[in-house]
Every structure is written in structure tokens, then in C-alpha cells.
Design brief:
The complex is a heterodimer of chains A (about 190) and B (about 800). Chain A is mainly alpha-helical and about 190 residues long. Chain A has 2 domains: about 10-65, EF-hand (Recoverin, domain 1); about 70-175, Recoverin, domain 1. Chain A is built from 9 helices and no strands. In chain A, helix 2 (about 35-45) crosses helix 4 and helix 4 crosses helix 7 (about 135-145). In chain A, about 45% of the residues are buried. Chain B has a domain at about 250-325 and about 345-430 and about 445-700. In chain B, strands 1-2 form a two-stranded antiparallel sheet. Classes of the chains: A mainly alpha (about 190), B mainly alpha (about 800). The interface between A and B is large, with 94 and 101 residues. Chain A: This is EF-hand domain-containing protein. Chain A: It holds the Pfam family EF-hand_7. Chain A: GO terms for molecular function: calcium ion binding; magnesium ion binding.
Chain lengths: ~190, ~800
């Protein structure tokens, strides 16, 4: 068999697996994470718009959260996760929702409106360089580049990734396809 | 030429002919060209919106972006009356490249196309004659004919594939790795790449049935790759404590994890030291044991005091012989290998001992500097001190934490930290009045005076106590006391020092609570500073006492073994007190909080304090390596036990710390503290001992010499006598090590490199400031253009 056909044949079982077992809910390990719905939304490529993750979307997610992913990829996906209204920039509403997710859902845990106002004004002052009232992707990446902790906090780690993978019913299998090899959580070329 | 880029003005010919900028007389022409531009863009936008709807059906919200951007950009829509061009302007703004890159796949592909094109075109630029005069200089980087901004998605993909083919394969796979697209799209890109790569000539070749050889080869390659990936996975899983560390990070976050990673690093250092010493010194001496007076029977107390039957054992310096082991010229020693062996390699024990200790310190130095460099690279960024709040909210959420309770705790911590940061900022914006500031400064000064006073007090106390113990032992030596009293005297000084080291940090915590520093980070640094000062000053005093031979000793004639025993006792006492501190500080405190005070909060894991204890223990080991070669083994055992005990206590009793903790930054600080006072201090102590101290006459591998450093000199002289041809070998120590000019030269070079790097950093900071100014100016330009467009639109509407 010529090489291309063989590669296509190998990837077919992968697609079958993906179609049989989509993951409609976020993975069990992230049930408590306040960003779970945004993560599903960002990584989902389903045409129905129901935010379901196929196996490949799941792999994309693990790849983006792995330790081997570059800061570029992480900041790109982080930007999309934080962009709650999907308009391509982080404006005031997005930042407000982000802070509310971070501080938790309880009433006493939230910041007061004066504090929120002060916080958002400060954040925009620090990161909005062209002063248009929003943070676009480049400005976000500029802020992230100054934070050495981002790469380690926006990560899940290998053992967790394999545990998560197997507990969600997919199983970390080794697929001998020439193009994309599954290695648990290494960055996927 | 398909379309002109959006920012080129189509200025009519009569203004361009004289080459000047359009004068105010020609504003009518300018206005009309702007109107045409807007209409054109609106139709393009309508077309683009349809395209994007086909690509991705989930973007209805992108069509009507919220009103806020325009409000803050200074174009307030008047109450109840919106500018008629408002919706169009918003649509145009929503499709600006800087907005679309954040949400659309097509934009990402375009961006990577341009990046890859720039990679290819670094040396060659399109000539200026091909571009119109009004094109901006940055346009010269683009190929206007194939500008992909308005192409379809499929076209964009094929353009990107074409660009990628022109790159070398390694760079190509690197670019593919870094593109933030989904797996499907990367696969389709790869398919396009492989289709394009096989040219018509070769395609014929690849479509014929492959020969069995090629098929075998492919199978082998695939099989090898599979095996390699499985092997990699095994390696990752086989790392020690892999699952335990993931458990800890899942519950407590990266901050507590940094303590355990530090412990793992120290364990690695000690294992390397131990292996070096084992192979080159200990094992060989064990194979050829010297004749020793009748060994004392083993009682359990030796594990605590290191004296008794351990005194004349491999553990200490005094056991090691000063002769050449297995020397064929000497008479065969008793218990040696059979004389029928063909070759007998002589082994110069004093030389081996000294060089192994030297190699040990050298290897540790290199490893430490490499860890510091690695850690510094990860944690330092230019300009990371500004923009704290933005960095905080974007990188505060630790995705490693998964348990429900821990997530809730993390949210609470983040909330508290944000509130503290905001309060601090409010305080800074309205500074304190003069009496308040004076009061604050007085409190700070008092606290520092108190801290330094306690350090001095502790040092004096330790000094007098050791003098007392010395006197007691001398009196005891005359009269034979009970065994317990003798052992007790030996243990008294380590007990007192460890007690002070355990209690004083709690006192410093109380002092910090009274002092109330401005920021929680300053609190952590101040606490580390005070604790470190106390520990290092006490250790300095002890070193002075050891070198001046004023110590409590069980082996009177061999002062090195005495020092080794003392250090062994200090290490063991440190371990016992760490256990007691864990037990009382964490377990007992949690029981009190739960049962008596009925509070839900548990004691916090004090990371700084625990790391400083580890650094102190490691300093003791490094100080003692020369005198007790098996001390790294003792430290390895201690660290292994400490890991499991600390982990169990953490899981059962503690909660994650509520103070903010920049894990990567603090890891760098701790490795630096491990290098700078701890390792360098120990290295200076050992170097001083080797260069200046006279070894004892009756024991150890260096007996009879003036200083330990004479050993290699004696050896070099022997070599020169036996073979005059290698006399040059003696020049190395003379000119490199003893001559100070070479050392000055080395230091000068290092200082020059540091100065150069500082200047480079300063230049980079200046460039960042300039670029930020430029971007702010572009933002102003954008606002100006939008206002002008609105004015023109108004004029047009009024005229019409």
C-alpha cells in the first residue's frame, strides 16, 4: 500500500473510536474547575455546537495542557478560554467574569463592585497598550510573557493526563499511525 | 493585484503628481475617497461575514460586538441617538486583524502564513518599484499578490502548505507543532504537504506496489518508533515519587510542591556525593582494613552519638590509612587477596581521599550552578515587576488542582490575595501621614533590633554552653562517670543548638505578626532573612570552635574524628527535632484546633521554614564530608525518611498556605540560598582546613604531613623523581592554582561577562518602552481615523 493510503487506513479506527464515544460532559477530574465549560467550548470542533469533545479534541486539550506545549500555544488557548463572549478580545465584561470565576461562586467570596472596578481599571492600564479598552491577543501574550508561573499553572502533567484519559473511557492506546502518534500528553505535531 | 490593502489611500492623480501631501484644498477629494473606502469595506465585511458563517457556525456573537470598546475609545454614543455609521464602524472594527486573530481559524492560518513567509524571505525583499508610493514600509515584507487576508479558508490552507514546503524539514515540523490549530486541521495540512511533496515524477514511483524490502523497512521503522514511545512513557512513570508528587500538587498546588521538588534535588546531590566517595574511598578501604585495636561492642546509643563502636569505623576520617594500599613492594598484608594474582594495582589512599573530596565539591558546584541557571531562566522575565495585577489574574489559577475542596480553597486564596493587592495599591495612592509613617518606621526598627538582639543572644548562649560542656567533660575525664552522663555530655550542645533553631522561627513569626509589613512577599523575605542569619551565624561560631579544637570529644587524639562525630550528632539531632516540630507543630496543633477550638481551619504548611531546615541540614553534611566520608549516606537516609513523614503529615494535618507564593521565583531564591551562604561557606571551611590546618599525628590518611595540601605536592615530587620527563606536570599547581594572577584574570572575565549581560538587559528594557509608546501612538491614530470617518460620513449625509 502506498504510504498515504496506509496512513489513512490507520487513522480510520481512531475516527471510529471518536464517533462512538464522544465526551458530552467535562472529564471527571475537572468537575470542580470553574473553567470546565469554557475549556469544552474552546476545544470542541463539533458542528452541532453542543460543546462535545471527540477523542481528537480531547487529545488537543491534553496536548495544550501538557508540559511540553510551548508558551505560544498555551497563551493562545488561554486567551480563547478567557474570552467569554467569543469576540476575539478581552473586554471589561470578560475580565469581570474571569475574576468572578477565579474568586468563586459564594457571595462573600466575590469582590465588591468598587474593588472590581479598581481591579479592572488597573488591569487595563497595565496591559492595554493601544488604549482601546480591550486586551487583544498580542497584548495578552505580552502580559503572559512577563509571568514565569503561567507555563506551570496552565498545565496538568503527564500522570494526571493518562489517569484522566483512562477514567473517561477512552484508554490511552498507542496508535501506530505515521502522522500523529498518541503519547498521552506530549505536544502533538 | 486583487485588492489594495485597507490602509492605502486612493488619492486622485492631481495631488500625487507634485509628490506632496494632499493639501487642505483637496479635502473634498479626500472625503470622497474615504466614503468609497467605507462602502467598499462594508461590502467586503458583508462578504467576509458570510464566509465566516460557513466556516464556523458558532460565531453569531461576533457580528455585533459589545458597545464598550467604542465607549472607552472616546467615541461616546450620545444618549438616545446613535451615530448612523456606528454599526458599520463596529462591524469594521470587529474584523480588524487584531480582533479576528483571537477567534477565527482563518486568521490564525493567515498569521502563520505570514510568519513562515517572513522566515523564508529574511534575506530577499521585493523591490521597491513594484509597490505604490503610498504603501507603508512594512508592506514591503508582504507579497501583495497573494495577501491571504481575504482568501477562503481552503486557499489559506494551501498557501500555508506551499510556504511550509519551502522550509527545511526540521523547521517545518517545529512550525507545525507550534500552530494552535486542532488536530483535524493539522492532519489536513500534513496531507496537503505530502501531496505537494510528491511531484508528478515521484508520484508514479510511490503508487506502484512497493517491494517487500521497502515494506519490511517501513514495518521496522514503525515498530521501532512504537517501542521508543513506550520506553519514554516508562521512563516518565519510573521517576521516583512520580505519583506522590502529582497527589501533592493536586491537593495543595505548586507552592507546596516546590518544597518536595527541592528535597528531591538535595537527594540527588547527596546520592552523587555518596557514590563518588563509595567507589573511590570507602569501598577500597573496606577491602583493605587497617589493623585496629579491639573494637567496642555495639550498643544502640551509637546511632545517636556516633561514638562508641562507630569511632574506629569507616564512618570517620581516623579509620583511613595513610599508606598505599595493595602496594606490591610492601609485604603482603594480612587478609589481602591471594598473591597468585598477576597484577596488583597499588592505590594511594591519601591522594585518593583528597582528590575525591575535591571532585565531590567540584561536581556539587557545577550541579548547583546548572540548577541555578536553569531555575533563573524559568523564573526571570524582563519587566516582571510591573503589571502585577494583570499577571496575577491571568496566571493565578492553577489547573493542577482538581479536588473540590482544594479548588474552593484556591478560590478563597485568590480572592484574599486580590483584596490584599488592591488594598496595598489604595494605600500607596494615598500615602500615610507623617506620624503614622514615623510609627511604622519605629516599629520596623524595633522589630529588627529585637531580631538581631536575639541572634546575638543565641550565639553568646551557644558559646558559653559549649565552654561549659568542655569544662564538664574535662572534669569528667579525671573521674570516670557513668556511661549515660558521658553520652549526655556529648549530646548536650547539638540538643541546645537544634532547640534554638526550632524555637526561634516561631518567635520570628510572632514578631512578623506584630510588625505587619506592607506586602505579604516582604514578610516572607524578612522571615527567611532572619532565620538564615541565625542559622549561619551559629554555624560560623561552631566552625570556629571546631577549628580551634575546643570541643567535647571521645577520641582525644584524633581531632578530625571528633569533628566528624560532632557533625554526625548535629545531623541526627536536626532530624529528631524536625520530627518533633512536625509532630507538635502540625499534628498537635490540628488536634487542638479541631477538638478544643472547633475551628475548620488546619495549620498551614510553612514552606519557607521547612526549606531553610533542609538547607541547614545540607550545610552540615557538606561541612562534614571531609571528616566523615559516609555522612552523605546518613543524609540520604534522613531525606528519604523525611519525604515520607512530611508527606503523610501534610496530607493528614495541613492545608495549603494562604499567602501568595510565586513558586518559580521562590525556587530560584532557595537554590541561590543553597549556593551562596550554604555551599560556599562549607567550601571555604573545607578549603581552609585543607590548606592551613595541621592534621593529627596519629590517625587518618594525612598523618605526619604539615597540611593536607602537601599530599599532591609530595606525589608530584615522587613522579618527577621517577620520571624526569614529566617535570612539566609540576608546573600546573604552581602556576595555575597557587599563582594569584590567573585567578584574578578568571574573576575579571566573569565580571566582564556579567557587566555585558546587564547592559544588554538594560537595552532590552528601553526597547520595550519605545515599542509600547509606538503601539500607544498607533491606538491614537486609530481613534483619530475613526473620528475622521464619522465626520466625513456626517458631511456626506448632510450634503446628500
Amino acid at each position: 500500500m502506498p504510504k498515504e493510503q496506509r496512513e489513512n487506513a490507520c487513522s480510520v479506527p481512531l475516527l471510529l473510536v471518536a464517533q462512538c464515544q464522544p465526551c458530552p460532559e467535562p472529564s471527571p477530574s475537572w468537575q470542580a474547575n470553574p473553567f470546565q465549560h469554557r475549556i469544552c467550548h474552546v476545544f470542541s470542533t463539533s458542528v452541532d455546537g453542543d460543546d462535545s469533545l471527540s477523542f481528537e479534541d480531547f487529545l488537543d486539550m491534553l496536548s495544550a495542557f501538557s508540559d511540553a506545549a510551548t508558551s505560544d500555544i498555551k497563551s493562545n488557548y488561554a486567551f480563547r478560554i478567557f474570552d467569554f463572549n467569543d469576540d476575539g478580545v478581552l473586554d471589561r465584561k470578560d475580565l469581570e467574569e474571569l475574576v468572578n470565576c477565579l474568586t468563586g461562586q459564594g457571595e462573600e467570596a466575590r469582590l465588591s463592585s468598587a474593588e472590581m472596578e479598581q481591579l479592572i481599571c488597573n488591569v487595563l492600564e497595565e496591559s492595554d497598550i493601544d488604549k482601546d479598552g480591550t486586551i487583544n491577543l498580542s497584548e495578552f501574550q505580552h502580559v503572559i510573557s512577563r509571568s514565569p508561573d503561567f507555563v506551570s499553572t496552565f498545565a496538568v502533567g503527564r500522570a494526571r493526563a493518562l489517569c484522566v484519559c483512562s477514567s473517561s473511557g477512552f484508554g490511552a492506546g498507542w496508535l501506530p499511525s505515521g502522522n500523529s502518534s498518541v503519547q498521552g500528553a506530549r505536544s502533538i505535531p | 493585484m486583487s485588492q489594495l490593502p485597507a490602509f492605502t489611500l486612493r488619492v486622485p492623480e492631481n495631488t500625487e503628481s507634485d509628490g506632496q501631501e494632499p493639501s487642505p484644498d483637496n479635502e473634498g477629494a479626500l472625503h470622497s475617497s474615504f466614503c468609497e473606502l467605507i462602502e467598499e469595506q462594508s461590502s467586503l465585511v458583508a462578504g467576509a461575514i458570510e464566509m465566516e458563517l460557513q466556516e464556523r457556525s458558532r460565531e453569531p456573537s461576533a457580528l455585533l460586538p459589545p458597545l464598550d470598546p467604542m465607549a472607552t475609545a472616546g467615541l461616546e454614543p450620545k444618549q438616545g441617538e446613535q451615530h448612523p455609521g456606528y454599526a458599520t464602524t463596529l462591524r469594521i472594527l470587529a474584523n480588524m486583524p487584531s480582533h479576528t486573530i483571537g477567534r477565527s481559524r482563518g486568521a490564525i492560518i493567515s498569521q502563520y502564513y505570514n510568519r513562515t513567509a517572513r522566515l523564508r524571505r529574511r534575506s530577499s525583499r521585493p523591490s521597491l518599484q513594484q509597490l505604490s508610493h503610498t504603501a507603508r514600509p512594512s508592506l514591503r515584507q508582504y507579497d501583495l499578490e497573494s495577501d491571504p487576508t481575504n482568501a477562503t479558508l481552503a486557499d489559506k490552507q494551501s498557501l500555508l502548505a506551499k510556504e511550509l514546503l519551502s522550509l527545511p524539514p526540521a523547521q517545518r515540523s517545529q512550525v507545525l507543532l507550534e500552530v494552535p490549530l486542532s488536530l483535524e486541521e493539522k492532519r489536513s495540512l500534513r496531507r496537503q504537504l505530502s501531496q505537494r511533496r510528491s511531484t508528478p515524477g515521484l508520484r508514479v514511483h510511490s503508487s506502484e506496489p512497493t517491494s517487500p524490502c521497502a515494506w519490511c523497512q517501513d514495518c521496522i521503522v514503525l515498530g521501532c518508533r512504537t517501542l521508543w514511545y513506550r520506553f519514554l512513557a516508562l521512563i516518565h512513570a519510573a521517576q521516583p515519587w512520580h505519583y506522590a508528587l502529582k497527589q501533592i500538587s493536586g491537593r495543595f498546588g505548586s507552592s507546596v510542591l516546590s518544597y518536595f521538588l527541592f528535597l528531591k534535588t538535595l537527594l540527588l546531590f547527596n546520592i552523587i556525593s555518596f557514590l563518588l566517595l563509595l567507589v573511590f574511598v570507602v569501598a577500597l578501604q573496606a577491602a583493605y582494613p587497617p589493623a585496629v585495636a579491639s573494637p567496642r561492642p555495639f550498643t544502640g546509643l551509637e546511632l545517636l552519638t556516633g561514638a562508641g563502636s562507630f569511632t574506629h569505623s569507616l564512618l570517620y576520617y581516623g579509620y583511613y590509612s595513610n599508606t598505599t594500599l595493595n602496594d606490591p613492594s610492601a609485604s603482603s598484608p594480612s587478609g589481602s587477596t591471594s598473591p597468585s594474582r598477576a597484577t596488583q594495582l597499588p592505590y594511594n589512599m591519601p591522594l585518593a581521599y583528597m582528590f575525591t573530596i575535591g571532585a565531590n565539591f567540584f561536581a556539587t558546584c557545577i550541579l548547583l550552578m546548572y540548577s541555578m541557571y536553569h531555575s533563573f531562566l524559568k523564573s526571570y522575565r524582563v519587566g516582571s515587576s510591573t503589571g502585577v495585577l494583570a499577571i496575577k489574574i491571568f496566571s493565578a489559577w492553577d489547573f493542577k488542582v482538581v479536588q473540590r475542596h482544594s479548588v474552593k480553597l484556591q478560590s478563597e486564596n485568590i480572592c484574599t490575595q486580590l483584596k490584599e493587592l488592591l488594598a496595598e495599591q489604595r494605600l500607596r495612592s494615598c500615602p500615610l501621614s507623617l506620624p503614622q509613617r514615623l510609627r511604622h518606621i519605629t516599629v520596623l526598627l524595633l522589630a529588627w533590633l529585637l531580631a538581631l538582639g536575639t541572634v546575638l543572644g543565641c550565639v553568646v548562649a551557644v558559646y558559653y554552653f559549649s565552654e561549659l560542656m568542655h569544662m564538664v567533660q574535662q572534669k569528667q575525664g579525671a573521674a570516670a562517670g557513668s556511661v549515660w552522663l558521658q553520652e549526655g555530655v556529648l549530646l548536650a550542645l547539638p540538643f541546645v543548638v537544634s532547640l534554638l533553631n526550632t524555637l526561634m522561627p516561631h518567635f520570628y513569626n510572632l514578631l512578623a505578626a506584630w510588625e505587619k509589613q506592607d506586602s505579604p512577599e516582604a514578610e516572607v523575605y524578612v522571615a527567611i532573612c532572619r532565620n538564615l542569619l541565625l542559622k549561619m551565624v551559629v554555624l560560623g561560631l561552631l566552625c570556629y570552635q571546631w577549628l580551634s579544637r575546643r570541643l567535647v570529644c571521645s577520641a582525644k587524639e584524633c581531632w578530625e574524628t571528633c569533628v566528624g562525630q560532632d557533625l554526625y550528632r548535629f545531623v541526627v539531632m536536626d532530624f529528631i527535632f524536625t520530627l518533633l516540630d512536625t509532630g507538635f507543630g502540625e499534628l498537635l496543633w490540628r488536634l487542638i484546633l479541631e477538638k478544643k477550638l472547633k475551628s475548620k481551619r488546619r495549620p498551614e504548611f510553612d514552606i519557607a521554614q521547612n526549606v531553610l531546615e533542609l538547607i541547614y541540614g545540607q550545610t552540615l553534611t557538606w561541612l562534614g564530608v571531609l571528616f566523615a566520608p559516609l555522612l552523605p549516606a546518613v543524609q540520604v537516609v534522613k531525606l528519604l525518611l523525611l519525604f515520607y513523614i512530611k508527606k503523610t503529615s501534610l496530607m493528614q494535618n495541613c492545608q495549603s498556605p494562604s499567602k501568595p507564593w510565586q513558586a518559580s521565583h521562590m525556587s530560584t531564591v532557595f537554590i541561590t540560598l543553597l549556593f551562596f551562604p550554604s555551599f560556599l561557606g562549607a567550601a571555604i571551611f573545607v578549603s581552609y582546613t585543607i590548606w592551613w590546618e595541621k592534621p593529627s599525628e596519629t590517625c587518618g590518611p594525612f598523618r605526619g604531613l604539615q597540611t593536607i595540601y602537601q599530599t599532591p605536592k609530595v606525589w608530584v615530587e615522587l613522579l618527577e623523581e621517577s620520571n624526569p620527563n614529566i617535570a612539566w606536570f609540576g608546573w600546573i599547581p604552581q602556576y595555575l592554582v597557587e599563582n594569584t594572577v590567573f585567578l584574578f584574570f578568571l574573576t575579571g572575565m566573569v565580571l566582564a561577562v556579567i557587566y555585558f549581560n546587564i547592559q544588554v538587559l538594560r537595552g532590552q528594557r528601553q526597547i520595550i518602552c519605545l515599542l509600547e509608546e509606538q503601539i500607544a501612538n498607533e491606538g491614537e491614530d486609530k481613534k483619530f481615523l475613526i473620528q475622521r470617518i464619522h465626520c466625513i460620513y456626517d458631511d456626506k449625509v448632510h450634503c446628500a
